[in-house]
Amino acid sequence: MGEKYEPKILALICTYCTYTAADMAGSMRLQYPPNVRVIKLLCTGKVDVIYLLEAFKAGADVVMVSGCEIGDCHFLEGNLRAKERVAHAKTLLDDLGLGGDRLEMFHIGASDAPKWAEAVKLMTRRAHELGPNPLGRKKPRAAQTNIEELRA
Amino acid sequence: MIVAERKPFDEIAAATSGFRKVLVAACGTCVAVCLTGGEKEAGILAAQLDMAATLGDREQVFSVGCVERQCDREFLEELGPQIAEADAVISMACGAGIQFLAEAYPDTPVLSGVNTTFIGVNEDVGVWTERCRSCRDCVLSITGGVCPIALCPKGMLNGPCGGADQGKCETDRERDCAWSVIYRRLENTGRLANLEEVIEARDHRDLLPGRQVHPAYQRRYSAHE
Amino acid sequence: MSKFSDALAGGKFVLTVEMDPPRGTALGDMYALAKGLSAKVDAVVVSDNRGAVARMSPVLAAHHLIKHTGAEVILTLTCRDRNRLALTSEMLAAAAGGVQNLLLVSGDFVTLGDQPGTRPVYDLDSVQALVLASLLAQGRDFSGELAEPAAFFLGASLPVATDPPGLAGIKFSKKLKAGAGYFMTQPVSGAADLDALAKLPMAADTKIIAGLELGADQEAGPLLELAKELKGGGKAAGVHLACPEAPQRLTELVDKLS
């Protein structure tokens, strides 16, 4: 203990928009905190509530989901579904005592690299304000549920 | 189908507090369709309970099992090995399934993870509405396929009560009066004459616990009991 | 049969008032109000847990009102709080207690009251309750013979406007068939509210009493005007006055109308 707290941020992002924006942020040499781990998805419509819960179980301090701007989804309404699921997952996190503030939904277009950098900064600040996810520090836990099975 | 809603998290967490190894048993039929008690929802509950236990420094382990239907003995048998490992089971099935599970495994405490709400239909994405009270004396042939027992709070059988206003129910001005819907449906199909006769008082023996034997099996169950 | 039914049959434009039994055990206020009114009105309607709020049994209140004030009473019984056995026993008790007029209604749903989690009964609907009362007049119930018949002048409620309009006629004719001798409407705010009812074919030979309701702080003028208009208009056989939040105001209303 006594180590400096470096937040672990998990970002579940859409390949068509936010991932492109993040890529562009690199080309543009935009500065943002290095705490974010990115998982690229074909669409945020693939994000399931159980992924979000398992992310916190595995020790993520904050989780961000970022899809296309409203109306721009390649699959028409995948980002809208993600938005609803994130809102639901926030209530589940409130219920169990971890707090829904650790989870947030963003909509970032492919050309909007600065918005991505801002979003990461915002969630990094949030992670510092909220402090470490107590689950990640209590004990190492193997996932009890099998995500692959639940994906069916 | 049978519709249910998940119980509040705190209530479920409190019910499990004395048990170390808890199995969350999903049901793959009605409650899975209404996104309440299927395998995915059982996984979500188990993850929630697991995190809450860790946050509360309780040594608890939550696992997930799922069968096709908890209202059939054949399917319940599949849960045997997992239940043998568990100190308690949270059933995510409807009330019927929960009881049949408890009956099949009488030595294991069985807890309910859902509140069974009604027999209904999937009206739209994520929306279910009640349609049937299983009253054992169906009047839908007379009432134009609209049930006055399930859809009228007073179960009026002979027309609307005086509380209806502009075709809306006195208990909820957003809800259509069942009798307005019945009238329109019968008018539309030329059957308003159905409403001329007084419908007699109902037989309320539907409140006795039900039992039904298929005609083909009558001999088997009557002769040897 | 009853004084009230005679008045209607004789073509008199009747005046009735509504009284709630006490939310307690003392009947004094009810006696005092009824004593002042009974000579001027054709009947006092005793309500039954109006608004789905518990009060003294209207059967006992009606009995005492008759005994102590000589008022002509119409006893309201709802289907909300009693199954067919309880309705039968209350009707028998009412007959034994001197009640000669009934008003049989479904009753405001429990969620409109102060204890919304109450289990509602509705074993019978309002039409079936009339059928039961008609059977009692023949000396039997749904099952079999009674030692004595219990005959009442039977009344029912009537909605003034239904959507679709034809719905009102369905209920109206069923209630007539089931034995209703007079009808009380839901509160109306103008004579035109009665037009739809008056157009129904069965309305011609039926005694329909228009309900009028006054709020505690509402000015009495328009209501009195409407009552006078109805008296001369031929659309109603009488008016029924209710002022549930301030029943003492009934005295003033009745004085101006009688």
Query: Can you tell me the overall shape of chain A?
Result: globular
CATH topology of chain C: TIM Barrel
Series of H and E elements of chain C: HEHEHEHEHEHEHEHEH
**Between the first and last Cα atoms of chain A, what is the distance in angstroms?**
40 Å
| Mean pLDDT across every amino acid position of chain A | 91
Mean pLDDT score of chain C, rounded?
96
* Proportion of strand residues of chain A: 15-25%
- Tell me the Rg of chain C in angstroms: 17 Å
Mind describing the biggest β-sheet of chain C?
Answer: 8 strands, parallel, barrel
Strand order of the largest sheet of chain C: 1-2-3-4-5-6-7-8
**What separation lies between the terminal Cα atoms of chain C?**
24 Å
Task: Explain the overall architecture.
The complex is a heterotrimer of chains A (152), B (225) and C (258). With 152 residues, chain A is an alpha/beta fold. Chain A has helices at residues 18-27, 49-57, 78-96, 113-130, 134-138, 147-151; strands at residues 9-14, 36-41, 62-67, 103-107. Chain A has a single domain, classed as Rossmann fold. Chain A is built from 6 helices and 4 strands; from the N terminus they run E-H-E-H-E-H-E-H-H-H. In chain A, helix 1 (18-27) packs across helix 4 and helix 2 (49-57) crosses helix 3. Chain B has 225 residues and is of the alpha/beta class. Chain B has 2 domains: 2-118, Rossmann fold; 133-202, no CATH class. Chain B has 9 helices and 9 strands. Chain C has helices spanning 3-9, 28-37, 58-69, 84-96, 126-137, 166-177, 195-199, 221-233, 249-257; strands spanning 14-19, 43-46, 73-78, 101-105, 153-158, 182-187, 208-213, 238-242. In chain C, helix 3 (58-69) packs parallel to helix 4 (84-96). In chain C, strand 7 (208-213), helix 8 and strand 8 form a beta-alpha-beta unit. The two termini of chain C are 24 Å apart. Chain C is built from 9 helices and 8 strands. Chain C has 258 residues and is α/β, with parallel strands linked by helices. Chains in contact: A-B, B-C. Chains B and C meet through helix 8 of B and helix 5 and helix 6 of C.
How do the helices and strands line up, and which of them pair or pack?
The complex is a heterotrimer of chains A (152), B (225) and C (258).
Chain A: E1 9-14, H1 18-27, E2 36-41, H2 49-57, E3 62-67, H3 78-96, E4 103-107, H4 113-130, H5 134-138, H6 147-151
Parallel strand pairs in A: 1-2, 1-3, 3-4
Helix pairs in contact in A: 1-4, 2-3
Chain B: E1 2-6, H1 9-15, E2 21-27, H2 30-33, H3 39-55, E3 61-67, H4 73-77, H5 80-84, E4 88-91, H6 95-104, E5 110-112, E6 114-124, E7 127-132, H7 148-151, E8 168-169, E9 172-176, H8 178-188, H9 218-223
Parallel strand pairs in B: 2-3, 2-4, 4-5
Antiparallel strand pairs in B: 1-6, 6-7, 8-9
Chain C: H1 3-9, E1 14-19, H2 28-37, E2 43-46, H3 58-69, E3 73-78, H4 84-96, E4 101-105, H5 126-137, E5 153-158, H6 166-177, E6 182-187, H7 195-199, E7 208-213, H8 221-233, E8 238-242, H9 249-257
Helix pairs in contact in C: 3-4, 4-5
